[in-house]
Amino acid sequence: MRLRIRHREGIATLTTLTDQSTLLELHEAIAHSIKAPVARLELKFGYPPKLLTIDDSSAQSTLASLGVKDGEQILTSERPEGSPSTYAFGSSGGHSTPASTSTPTSGPFTATTAVAAARLPATSAFGANSNNNSSSGASSGTFGSRSVLQTTQPKQTIASSSSPFSTFQAAAAAAQPATNTFGGLSTVDTSYTPKPAAPAPAPAPAPAPKPTVAPSKDGIESVRIRDQGLLVLREVDDDNSCLFNAIAYTLDPSMKDNVQGLRQIIAKVIDSNPDAYPDVVLGRPRKEYCDWIKKENSWGGAIELAIFSDYYKIEIDSIDVSTNRVDRFGEGQYDQRALVMYSGIHYDAVALTPSLDIPAECDQTQFETSSDAILTAGVQLAAKLKQAHKFTDLATFTLRCSVCQVGLKGEKDAQQHAQSTMHTAL
Fold first, then answer.
1. What is the DSSP letter of 44?
2. Catalytic pick from 242, 290, 317, 363?
3. What is the pTM of this model?
4. Among 92, 312, 393, 399, whose CB has the most other CB atoms within 10 angstroms?
5. Helices (H) and strands (E) in the chain — how many of each?
6. pLDDT tens, 97-108?
7. Where along the chain do its domains lie?
8. Is 423 tagged catalytic?
9. For this structure, is 401 an active site residue?
10. Which CATH architecture has domain 211-394?
């Protein structure tokens, strides 16, 4: 059984548990792998993420009975220190130490990756590609478990990986002299009677890592975020369903081959909420809009992003390449966010990867809203794309209606033609 563990420092891959391993074993194995206090560890899995609560009645439940499957992604977080635990893990309260050993992960943050990342300059970096067709589509890329949330797994060998710079930091720490001081002097000086040292001033909070521009590779523009990796654009097909495909990539990989299912979600929400989505908001009768959005050649936009934000309980930030404007759907309502890039007539997914050499299936696409480092990097990525002219100027681009072959110029002409003729194949 293979499980991917998302934690605040990176990704760990748990490989030796089975579906008959217990929830307790999962907690202990994950805590040991990511060096987290097991009593404060919280685990989530699924879409939307569901909390795996551990208590006396569930500790011995098998992963199979809890719905945790092979290939599942587990999202981890820590409760505040001193908060009550729902289960008595033991008197130590420290990191769990299961009998099994940890081995290097085959996931994105392997030891090799960490060493390679350590060679990168310790600076911050910033850095969407646009296609010239639809606003939603099925991705041609590989989909995987990409949520930043986490799922629980039983105690077994976990392939652990921390941030890309963990190996570098560990080596630096090992180079420091291992002296033990008290009162400002080494305790090995027996001729000195130590005196209490004055309390050290509290260290100033470290600034949030800032992104820095990273070189492009194989046409992939990226922005480096110190200690986290590279923020990259993941292009999706321009087949009139790009928005839906970008949503599947970032929020729900299980829907990657079911774009129509995502369209059905939109239609169902609009149909059942007439007060929230009246005709005046939709720009046409509600029933007509529901029928229209279910067609495979209909583009999605702001209405759909707002609905998906509420449906998946996550903030969705849409970054406009041409203007660098950020439209934040669900702002201030959720503790996770996802990013999409809008080039004028096309949406693409945005993801975080440890390296451009790592498979896309290891991407992270959901991030904590408590930090704006990812959003800041996304804005700079949009600026980098604009500089490379990877966007469409809506005021000057030309289209042709596939139904009546009329030539159209700009977004305004296209909208007026669609409203007057109901022709949407442009």
1. E
2. 242
3. 0.49
4. 312
5. 11, 19
6. 443 433 333 333
7. 211-394, 395-426
8. yes
9. no
10. Alpha-Beta Complex (3.90)
